[in-house]
Amino acid sequence: MQKKIGEWLSRKDNFCGKFSFLRVASEQWKKERPILVRNYKLLLMCILFQWVHNLATNLARFLHIPQRPLYDLGFALIPSIDSNFEFICDVVFCLCILMTIIVWLSPFFTTKHSISSVGMLSRFLSVLVLVQSLRIVTFVMTDLPGPSPRCRPDHPWYNQPRTMTDILWRSCVGFLSHGCGELVFSSRMLIVVLCMMTIARYGRRKSLTVYAVALSAVYGLLMISARREYSLSIFMAWYTVPLVWVVYGSNFPDELTEMPTREVPV
Questions:
Q1: I need a surface site. Which of 14, 29, 63, 168 has the fewest CB within 10 A?
Q2: Verdict on whether the full-model pTM lies above 0.85
């Protein structure tokens, strides 16, 4: 029996030797498990809060009354793009998400990383919940008329919640929804700026940070050009998310898989 176990372990080592990234991922997972055990309640609460944010968003959309869009300096300065090219906004949004996922999974593919993926996810979701809470307060207090043509009842994509079932269970995920009434401040810009902050903090290359900042700026301009958001909504997301990120980081340090070595005084 012991001989068979030894042969199996030997084959496993040879297999992991050929695919070194599997060995690195396996070792990283052993370091991540204790952190996941400590943080799983926080992660579950953050995930459940997405339903609360979804509920508040649908309620704001239900109460929204279509009106003439307000004057916006961004609309006056930035020309509008054709509706056939609005998909570029969604492409940039997906690129930001993809870059963040790559940075999040990077500890599983490199041995020179002491940051925990679970710690990254905990920080991302915690800041997301805090900023979404501020967002709920702002769009419940003030209902701005939607600037997009899809916020008009005669538009084929106008699809506001109409029943209690819609308010409770209709999804408001990213670019998959086309609602109006919760514009202060932009939910999509919130997520993009949060992705930028995550990449800037945890990305191992400065070029990633440069790309993330550039994509965030381009995305904000595209959203204004597509008339999906007011300049106010974009600007508020740009300063609110970093402020919450910095305050959270100053009070809750990163969870490390390896403690930094300290020099012992002689």
A1: 14
A2: no
